[in-house]
Task: structure prediction
Amino acid sequence: MTTSAATPVHPLIRMRSAYRKTGRLALVRSAALAAFACNVGAKGQKSEAVSQRGDQPVEWTISLTDDVELHRLNLQFRGMDKPTDVLSFSSERYRDGKLKPDANAAPGSADAPEFLGDIVISMERCSEQAAAAGHPIESELALLVIHGTLHLLGYDHNSKTRKARMWSTQSRALQSIGITLDVA
Result:
């Protein structure tokens, strides 16, 4: 999936060796790119996040790790003394896929990539949630990557309206890579 011929989009992916598996890197990359491009309308117009950026490249990191790491980060940054499935650390320049009107220009030159933020995923939570939902771990991983990337793009689920918008966008991104999940 491409977002724009002029806008290089590069998710930087880190995996602990225990979580490396054939096809997993490609899946994570496809899911991340789908989330970034998921705002493309029915007539094929560029997404708001893509068209507002022009030719400036964009990067973000995705780390696949374990419950111990997510527990530590969840406690440090959210005050929650438990592991979680995915955490996103955003540059906070976007809201619902659109660049905020008051967002400052990205630091650096126009050629330098804008860094959207970091996503950290617990593969233990991913595996347990997939088993509980009765779908493949690859589908759950794609969901978590898309969910985290949407948070970097300013989507949230802190109200009924915003949750409906995020869940709809999540479903479109999943469908664009051939995954259909019933996410409540």
Remarks:
- Helices lie at 24-37, 48-51, 67-78, 123-133, 137-152, 160-176.
- The beta strands are 9-15, 58-65, 86-90, 94-95, 98-99, 114-122.
- The CA atoms of residues 61 and 118 lie 5 Å apart.
